[in-house]
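Sample pair:
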Amino acid sequence: MISYPAALDRMAGTLTTPFAAGADRLALPFVPGEQSRETRFAAYDFGEHRARFGTDPRVRYIVTAREDIPVEVTMTVRYRSSGSSNASLSFAIPAGTPAGTSLLVPLGVDAATAVLQSVSVEVPQGEPPQGVRGVFRFTALLGDLAALLWVLGGERDVLAAQLNQVRGQRNVAAAVGLSLDLIGSDLGIPRFPPLPYGFAPDTIALYHLEDKVETPTVVDAMTLYTGVGHPGSRTNATPGADGRFGSGMGFVYGQSEITVPDHADFALAAADSFTAECFVRPAPGEWRGAVLSKHTDMLDPVKPGWGLHIGNFRGLDRNVWFLLSDGAIRTELFADVSLDTDRFHHLAGVLDRDRGLARLFVNGELAATQATTVGALTNTAPLRIGFSDNTGGGFSSGFYGTLDEVRISRRALTSFAPVLGEDDTSYRHRLALFRRWNLPTPANIKDALNDIVGEINGVPRPITVSDAFVRSPVGSHTVTIRPVALRPGETIDARGRRGTTESEICGTIADDQFDPRWLVAYDNDRPAFTGGERRIRQPMRRNLEALVRLVQPDDVLPDIRLSVALYDPKAADLRAVGRAVILRHPRIPADRLAALAHRAGFSWVQHRAGSADVYASIADTSSIEITGPLPGNWYGKDIPVDNPIPLDIAPPPPGDSLLRWSVLQAGPGRAELLGPVTGKRIELRGRHTGEVTVKVEARLGGKTYSATRKLSMGPVQLDAGQTIGADGSTGVDASIAGGPGDGAYSPEYLVTVDDPTLEVATPGINRMQANVADCLGRLLAGVFPPQPTQVRLVEGWNANGTGLDRVGRELALAPTAEAPMSLATLGVLAHGAGFDHVENTGTVVRVRHRAGEHVEVGGPAEVDEGSTTSFAMPQHGNPVGAVRAGSALATVNRGRSTVSLLDSATGALLGTVPVAGSPIGIAANANGGTVYTASSTDRTVTAVDVATAKVVAVGPALAAAPVAMVAHPSKPWLVILLPTQVVIVDTSSLAVVKQLTIPDASTGKLLALNPSGTTAWVACTDRTLRSVAVEEGTWGAAPALPAVPLALAVSGTRVYVTANRSLLVLDSANGTVTRSFDDLDLFPSRLHVDESAGAVYVGAWFDKGVERRNAAGERQGFVATPGAPVAILGSGASVFAVLRGEPHSGGIDAVATLTTGPTLRITALWPLAPVGGRRLEWSVRTADEAKAHLDGSTGELAKLTATSAGAVQVRARARVDGNPPYTVRIGLDQALLDMEQAGTPVVIRRGQYERIMNVLNELHPVGVEFETSVIRSHVLELKAGQLELFPAYTYPTYRLRGQHIARPIGKD
């Protein structure tokens, strides 16, 4: 920094001797001593001047700042004048006075004779003490010429000092004003804009003046912070006027005021400083009025008080007058400016007792100052905002215009941030933080926050930052959105992308290595073939078969068939190489048929414009395939080791083709080819469990064609002591499944698996993580026959465990006594189900699994565009039955021992009611008001009131565990099947009124009642079908059944019984078989007769669907369902199928609503899951052009609206205590939390919150979320709606180029 000599000294030093007397100067020394706020002058006189120049000096005193003065300093000079009289003088040195600036000591007429004795300085409260020595220099100007030179050169000294300051403002510490704004602009950190006042400890009252029109009370904002305040009452003041911040208050000339009752807080004793401030926008005109006042009559000099006024004073309209009076001394200050009428101005009247000064500020600039010794200003008058003549005071009138942001403080203020914008001190503090490079680690963020926030409740470092996280359990479910129709000319590829071309998806004819000898005849006679050609490419068989199955429900008549044009060597499209078809259907519109072709898996589909044709092609250019065992044929694997399996080529190769087989081995899997490797058929023998890839190459017509197939090999059995990993490695250690600390875990989100084939040894151990439940579901699905209790869960989840059992990733399984499998076979089945580690201990099969998705998300695999579908965290309650109960649909869930009540019109879950353990069925009384369940463990009946969803009765004690139950259609009876008898229970008393023993010691398995309730039919395990007259108790003949019965239903004239793959129709009058069918599902486990519709519904357990047949038993239609049907209810207009969801397939316990005609379709799927329940965060990930959105649910059930075709992933994240990953929690120090616990309020001030958000927004790492709920909960303005959650001005303003200069203050 360049130091310039004072202009006075430089100019005086060049003068010649004749001018020396007039330019003479004397530097006044201080008495030696320590630095202090008061210093005495050393004795001095002007004898040397008189001796040198023979004349008396003409004295003036100046004081020069030797360093920058950052805050306003009040200087008091004590002197002796006219011999012996002592006097003193106080004057202000403004804040920001640069070093080198000199000021005249305003002694007036005393200057000629004054001898300075001492000097002292005062600074505002809270500022560091200011000394005198080394900071100020006093000089006596002894002649008129010296005074003249000082006047002429003083401005040059100021400019030199300012130049030094400008040169020094190249860093944050030295910069002020616009220089700070320019530095902040380079950093992308602008100065905070003007903002309303928040909490300040010295505030007496704060009025934002944003009150409602309907309330006459004017709110004191301090009530929000302290619980007490000083509300006012308005008279003729109009809320809602345009204010400086939001709305303000409009005042009518001479008629409007707000009065605040007198309070001790407004008292101003002789030592009390205060500040009264507000924003004003005065109305035009010549008027006078009080803006803020607390005085009985400002025109009466003997009455104490104060007032801030606007009016025509001293010849200026809208001049500002600040008046103070203690009843004896009166101090008046005038701003001497005329306020504009089109903008808001900030006015502040200040009484500084420490300095003995009164000040008047306009827009933050000191407009007037005056020394004052005014005393106490206390009076009993109310505080007035505005003034009305009706009060009887001595004012000429009240304020006219708009007021906003009124504040009364018990402190003398000189800075008015934030209402005038952020001050330099605060802005400099922020820039000093952001100008350095901060690696956004939790420690650095914590330091930055505490540096910028300061103390809270006396705690110096109040903010904590933690990135310690708890992994949140997550789950996902992939669903494909299918188009409902394609418009003419529209195309779609397999990924749902519209507008693609065939060449980019499937290639062209020229790209294809084609030989027609590889074409295969399509031998399905259901379609109608046009053009006489039935040959296609081998890979396209699957797509065409899938399409035929899809159109089958619409293809019910023999003469209404799908028309297919296949291979055409003359075609200009891919039909010329056998990879495309042209489709048409007489009943299905082309737009819908195109959508079905897309659903069937064709790679590219086009609805040809101008025709009813649909064109579909595939991208697969292979000509041959390797055929052999079905995938998963061996307990979830393809083949067993050590058993040769034949492999063939499809289509059969021409005789002149040259073939070669080979095996590609990687990982633990090992296999060998048996026989000539050049033959058309080869045998593969597995040598070690794992996977291998078989390849065949065929040379024909100078071209090579190849095919590969990956085959998985499982063990023949897993003997005691053996272990196996998921990849087929044997002898592996349990550590391959990881440890309990891997992945997310929350016991609340474990999946409970209740399956009819699973016997749970101890209640509660059948809880596990979702990926473990998937594997267990595949294991149970592989058990055949699918009869109850095939597998026993010996050990499972243990909250107090030490291994994977503690987190639901380890199970111990064993076959039940009834199961037709060995422990070694169960081990093979567990390996095929996909468990990462399987061990046969000799007593149990222990399975372990790696950490994966913890939360299970269930829902359909496909949905239509425009549809809204429910996805849920499945309950897996193992529903076993359902019944209509009035307008409700009631399902009974054996696994959870509950009854679920649904609205039969909307599917909304009305309630879930716990009932006695392991219920076997459900029935409803005639009016549907009560439903009943029978417990197989407690051997009791539970009655549930449907309206209240509460248990109303329990009883009686049954002689044995119940097997099945039905309700009598006309009498208050329940008919219950026990293993050896049928009992009748009176529903009014829940007492057994009849016991009908089954003849011949047969064991009952199934029960049905004819529509009139006169006869009960019982199917027994000895393959007999028996009937009993309910009232008489007489048993009829017992016709023999060809197989063990699986399901039973009765109409008025027929009895229907299913067995494996078969249906028997019997005449109910004589029990003779009238019809039999063997075209059913492998395990048709449910039957329902709807006589009003002439329909019989069959539940297909193995194929997962519902089949409709006519009353004679002839097949009419089938619909696949996302779960095994456990109950079917039909009554004319509506058909319901209750489905048991399987974890491994994403299934959920649900109710499907079906169409009632021969063509079955699912019209709705209602999950048996609550709308609320456990908290989940749902989200959707889309691929390509797929579009879908969720309904915003945070419970266990969410609804997805599908918009555009493609694949989407529905994800659910559980909310658990602690931080989720990639989340940093911003909190409060424990000392503050302890204070709050003890009852001390902890408040974060508005300005502190804004600075916290500024730091977090500036230092925000990419991909990391800041959790600030604890901080927000302590910001009162947020709770009151006075502050935005994420203030825009707290974000950095980065830009690509150019300079972002702070906006100059304009008219508001």
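The mean pLDDT is 89.
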